[in-house]
From TrEMBL:
Name under which the protein is recorded: Putative aliphatic sulfonates-binding protein
Keyword Transmembrane: yes
Taxonomic placement: Bacteria, Bacillati, Cyanobacteriota, Cyanophyceae, Nostocales
Residue stretches spanning the membrane: 29-51, 71-92
Keywords: Membrane, Signal, Transmembrane, Transmembrane helix, Transport
Annotated SUPFAM superfamilies: Periplasmic binding protein-like II
Amino acid sequence: MISRLIDLLPRCTGQNILRSLRSATCRSATYRFAVRFCIGLVSVLVLPLVFDGHAIAASKSGNQFQLSKSSTIQLLETVGLFMGGIIFCVILDRWFSQRSAQSSNTPLAEQARRLKQLKIGYPEGMTNLEVLRTQGLLETRLRPYGLIVTWTSFLSASSLIEALSNGTIDFCGGGGTASIFSQAADHVFVRVAKEKYTAPKGQAILVPEDSPIQTLADLKGKKIAFDKGSSAHYILVRSLAKVGLDFSDIEPVYLTQPEALPQFRRGEIDAWVIWVPYTATLARSAYPGRSITDLESIFGDKTSVEVPTYYYAIPELVRDYPDLLKVILEEVNEAGTWAKKQELEAVQRLAKHHEIDPSIVEVLQKHSGERAIIPIDDQSLDALQHQANIFRDLNLIPEWVNVKDGTYSLQTKQNWTY
């Protein structure tokens, strides 16, 4: 009943209140003891009150006392109430025990007991998963079921999906492009959700500050570093096509971002395709280089469709633990919504001092109240299929892939909210 009331509470009451109430339901044993103690304490305090000066007739002869008839009746009534309170506590205890047993037999509880440990992978700089991890939102939600949550960081989305395939992790998030290369390599995974919005400045092509390169057309014949099979790979292909260049017109240098940074500093590469956290954010302020293009200038208002961030799971999690997967996605959504609100507050502070474009504030205000992740739909898969076709045309993947294959993509109308 308590859990049902919690579910009926409005969202505006706050996520922390919901979590506290859910935790309280699972600590009923402590509360049962508190109820018993309080009733007993009250009874002990009430009993002496019936022994007032009018209720006690002292016996002068034997230095003893005897109770008046009315005081005896009051005492019996008090003892009766006390016993009634004890009986009530026993009944209440049995009711709580039954409710606890019922809650421990829910599909979610049963799935959590079977899985025992949930292993999550995340790439550096992926906001939703960083918030989820650092604030312990998922651990708080699943602790009553005894499920252990572990976290492992990876350098790229491609390594994350490979880890899914070999069973190192159960759930992760990362760019959509990596899933194309992984599907072509017959890795085992399922796309289960996607982020609703992609940051328009979240990825860019950098060149050294003193580089003669000023436009995308100037990239012809240059050494360009990027992580093979990542979204940076796709961004480079589309950027070159925008100015009539082919992929064969540049010299690709396949490096992860940590590997590329020192070479970029030393001037050993001409350009570097990067993503968060190395774009022009606070985390990037100490890094060299200047941007010659970003997602917004390449894709315009189609950025979120063209360069999506997906969430992936092992097939067993989708097939055998659907209630648990729903909880994971609910918490990812909550973490993303919280992060967007924090970002909006930070931008609003900058806007007060005219340090940021007001249009950015307007966009963030629009997004801050919306869900962070959404189900995978035909539009998002059509865009991903377009990517796959481009890579196949360039012979960058060995065969055609169908991203709408139900083995690899879960399409559902479910919303991951409470």
